[in-house]
Amino acid sequence: VARTPEQFRERYDIDAHIRHRVLELDLAGQRVRVLDLEGYESRWEPYDRLLIATGAVPIRPDVPGVDAEGVYSVSTLQSGIQVRRAVDELQPKKAVIVGGGYIGLEMAEALLLRGIDVALIDMMPQVMNTLDSDMGGLVSEAVRQAGVDLYLEEALEGFDVAEGRMRAVITSARTLEADIAILGIGVRPNSDLAADAGLALGVRNAIVVNERMQTERETVWAAGDCAQTFHLVSRRPFHIALATTANRQGRVAGINLGGGYAVHRGVVGTAMTKFQDTEIARTGLQEKEIKDLGWAFVATKIKSRTRAGIYPGSASITVKMLAEQESGRLLGAQIVGGEGSAKRIDVVAAALHSGMTVAEVADFDLGYAPPFSPLWDPVVIAARQTAKQV
Amino acid sequence: VARTPEQFRERYDIDAHIRHRVLELDLAGQRVRVLDLEGYESRWEPYDRLLIATGAVPIRPDVPGVDAEGVYSVSTLQSGIQVRRAVDELQPKKAVIVGGGYIGLEMAEALLLRGIDVALIDMMPQVMNTLDSDMGGLVSEAVRQAGVDLYLEEALEGFDVAEGRMRAVITSARTLEADIAILGIGVRPNSDLAADAGLALGVRNAIVVNERMQTERETVWAAGDCAQTFHLVSRRPFHIALATTANRQGRVAGINLGGGYAVHRGVVGTAMTKFQDTEIARTGLQEKEIKDLGWAFVATKIKSRTRAGIYPGSASITVKMLAEQESGRLLGAQIVGGEGSAKRIDVVAAALHSGMTVAEVADFDLGYAPPFSPLWDPVVIAARQTAKQV
Q1: How many angstroms separate the Cα of A318 from the Cα of each of A131, A305, A349, A381, B53?
Q2: What ipTM describes this predicted complex?
Q3: Which of A311, A371, A370 is nearest to B277 (CA)?
Q4: pTM of the prediction?
């Protein structure tokens, strides 16, 4: 139990500039109980309208040693500063990263740049499980090429700790000695306050909201990583912890709270990142999501170039596209490739927003000049090949 | 008059590997008169189905001295080789380019790389007249910054010639001494054969075709720069001499000629190029095209960054967007900016294909990560600002 403001800050990883913390919501009474971190006393504050924007918290696995010194999560600015300080001060030689998603890959790249030996473990058969296994496999390959020791299909079982300090990461298959370990196994909506106050939680325990970002209580709004969104391709409630969604929801909530009118219709699931020279992007539904919906689908994967083949800097790009079996409706795409690859996913995202078929995407009049694209844009080639399968 | 195959090749700028030339079409008789450039004799060849793919020819202004040595057009591979040979052999110190479109700017960049002083004249108040004047002005600025002497609102009046060789370019305002001059004032459909055979010509004298690329004669097809297309935003017949359109039309014509079924619905007018570090892209209708249609419209121009501001290599990008006044229907966009700017136009092109409003584009779930974009993509920012004007 945190007894002092300092302990409280430490335990909850609170930036020094944060002065208050909300402990409890009383929705019937339209008030919130606030802890003043300066004076260390709590009081009730009334509200007319309330916005819950509590974000997400990193998932910490319940395994032995997870709280030892040397085991880091990276979520807030503060936690990022802590990792950097640890690298500067401890001069670690070996780092183990748990989880090969966005955070895991970005940390792997950063630590390699500091000259540290990096091992990465992931439960799945490939890194980046927001991609299908074949496309994630291309990323796994890039990670291995970069010199990362990649251990796939291995679960985290715990940490070997001596005198309060982590010395090794224990997986289902081996023990990896390490000076630091970084957890990158995802986040969960920080919706405990809302749940305690009786608000309904939905997908992945995200707060249920309507299109205006209003909860079931008329005066209470929620937005960002703590709130649910809607998937425009699956037509189902959805949760995705991304800055883009959080900002779009925040804008809509703000307009409505201020007396205006705005709606957040939802997302198509677009996300991207980069590992060294490999760009990674995805939008729409991936195979396992489509299977979960029980929809019949076709998938095609094509390889092309980012620029005209004759042009300097032309790089390889792989585009995978998914469509509904009978209708040919575009369902999603994934891209892995060199410089100039990732942002091409935006064309697919735009097409998902209007519910187009892959045949329609194959007919897109996209821009061409040798520095930017082969004559047939890779997205158009993928759409055409997918249309042939429908 | 060309009397020998060699003269014929020279006069019509024919690559050495071309063995035949079509002199005449007899559509009633389903035959074409072919000149054999080896034997130098002509004969009639019958056909079941005919494809006219005669492309475009560079416009040569009817001014004194245009046929002098040292005045070049750049259209075919052969003509490009000729210019390069002239640069290698004559070691010109001064070049004048007539026309600031795609060809003019690419030639300016290439000649600057060879250390040649470049002057460029254009009749319009800015280069790149496929952009609105404000956006073209940004390109004019980049061209000037690169050290090109830019003379705008000056018409070509002729060339000063001595002993058959061009010595200076004469504009409406000045005389510019030059060792070589390059014409880049556009192309026209090479539709003379079709016209002589009685086929209907449409916009800019391009051959009239239906969606299957069939002319009014059932057995005669046309595709590429010689053929008309359809503008999906203006809903009017259109002509645009671009590799993308030509290839899309050629594919459709080929499928239909071969007994299959395919349609070319049209284009949205997407095009892009690059001048040094400045990327230039456009799609849809520009202001003067919208005015010609008599439609009321709104326009917005925003300035943003190509990547997150904190990220190395983040460059400036300007996006202009145009929408119909009452409906808010997206009508077009133009982009000028640093690396990573041009291909963003494809999102706008995709939205034009489905007839979306700017408010819908403002709600697009586009990809974000610091290496690729600011959190709000510049296209989304432009759409949102434009939506406010509607």
Answers
A1: 13, 8, 17, 11, 33
A2: 0.94
A3: A371
A4: 0.94
